[in-house]
Design goal:
The structure is a single chain. The protein has helices at residues 6-37, 40-58, 96-99, 190-193; strands at residues 64-73, 78-80, 87-94, 105-110, 117-122, 128-130, 136-142, 145-161, 164-165, 172-180, 183-189, 199-200, 204-205, 213-218, 227-229, 232-241, 243-251, 253-254, 260-263, 266-274, 286-290, 301-304, 307-310, 319-324, 328-332. Strands 2, 5, 8, 11, 12 and 15 form a six-stranded mixed β-sheet that branches. The chain has a five-stranded mixed β-sheet with strand order 6-4-1-3-7. Strands 10-16-14 form a three-stranded antiparallel β-sheet, with no helix packed on it. The protein starts with 5 loop residues before the first helix and ends in a 5-residue tail after the last strand. It is of the alpha+beta class.
């Protein structure tokens, strides 16, 4: 065995290991130095920007921004006539509550006692509702105010109009269109209802129809905010063979011929007659009578409108379209004493 001391052998064996450790540490330091030294201004800017964004999001005292639903309570007989936001931004601050589950919040504007017209309503932190047990403090509300326009709800009666779509087959025509009800009550905001002159129903198709029929139709109003009562109408469309116009001279009778005479003695009656009747109407097919009330009228002359109708049922397609003249003159008959 060699006489070299034991300690000298151990020191000699550890020298390469120590050198490797030193070189490894030197490499790490070089990498760190390069990371810090290269483009250090960009890295510093990024760090400062991240810090600024954190301050904005965090805010003072743990501020956070919530999107809160906005509701408006209005009088029962009014509606909101303008567009308004459906939500507002609420900035709140608090402790651990804001860092956990978001507290439930709402903002309600109470206009129950407001009059019709425009209202500028300020939005304040006091108007925000939230669970009183939440550790929350309302800082601000955005927007700071909203404009609400209230308009009264009114109702009125309007006539019903039912348009027809298409044409019946050749040789046929529409005799009459009957609508039930003839008028409907519409309701809505004043400015909208005032513009409605009639309640127009959905068109009724008559193309290809060879006989009379009934159907139900809904109304098509100018706005979805206008409502009709009832919401639909029953339509009866009478169809028949094509008609030709005839004019018949009809004598005028008086209900009290002993007390009154009439002038003129006859009127011209225009009628539509189906081609299937195959004859020309005569004066005896009609009745034209002027009724005199039992108590009579003051004065010697009276202007009245005769009631004109068919004397017998000839054809359901016959229609009286015009009476000329529309009125006649009754003359009191003087009696000699």
């Amino acid at each position: 065995m060699s006489g070299r001391p034991k300690g000298a052998l151990e020191c000699g064996a550890g020298a390469p290991h120590s050198k490797g450790v030193v070189e490894e540490r030197t490499g790490i330091l070089k990498i760190l130095r390069d990371l810090i030294a290269k483009n250090w201004w960009l890295k510093l800017s990024a760090l400062l920007l991240s810090f600024a964004l954190w301050l904005v999001v965090r805010g003072d005292d743990g501020e956070r921004v919530f999107i809160v639903p906005l509701t408006v309570q209005v009088p029962r007989n009014m509606e909101i006539a303008n567009e308004r936001p459906s939500s507002v931004e609420v900035t709140a601050a608090g402790g651990s509550t804001l860092s956990g589950r978001l507290p439930e919040m709402t903002y309600t504007i109470d206009l129950h006692d407001a009059a019709e017209g425009s209202h500028i309503v300020p939005l304040t932190p006091d108007g925000v509702w939230f669970n009183p047990t939440a550790d929350v403090r309302i800082v601000r509300v955005n927007p700071a105010r909203v404009s609400i326009v209230l308009e009264r709800i009114i109702s009125r009666e309007v006539p019903v109009r039912v348009p027809l779509q298409g044409n019946p087959p050749a040789g046929m025509e529409v005799y009459q269109v009957t609508v039930v009800p003839e008028t409907v009550s519409i309701s809505g905001r004043r400015s909208q209802v005032d513009l409605v002159r009639e309640a127009t129903a959905a068109p009724v198709a008559v193309s290809g129809k060879k006989e009379s029929f009934q159907t139900k139709v809904n109304f098509r109003l100018q706005s979805d905010d206008i409502h009709a009562i009832p919401a639909e109408a029953r339509v009866t469309v009478e169809l028949g063979v094509r008609r030709m116009e005839q004019t018949v001279t009809v004598p005028v009778a008086v209900s009290d011929p002993e007390s009154y005479s009439v002038s003129p003695l006859a009127i011209a009656v225009s009628v539509l007659v189906p081609a299937t009747l195959n004859r020309k109407l005569a004066p005896e097919d009609f009745k034209a009578v002027v009724a005199v009330p039992a108590e009579g009228w003051p004065g010697s002359q009276i202007v009245a409108k005769p009631a004109v109708e068919l004397a017998a049922t000839l054809d359901p397609g016959i229609r009286i379209t015009l009476v000329k003249p529309e009125t006649v003159t009754l003359q009191r008959i003087s009696r000699k004493k």
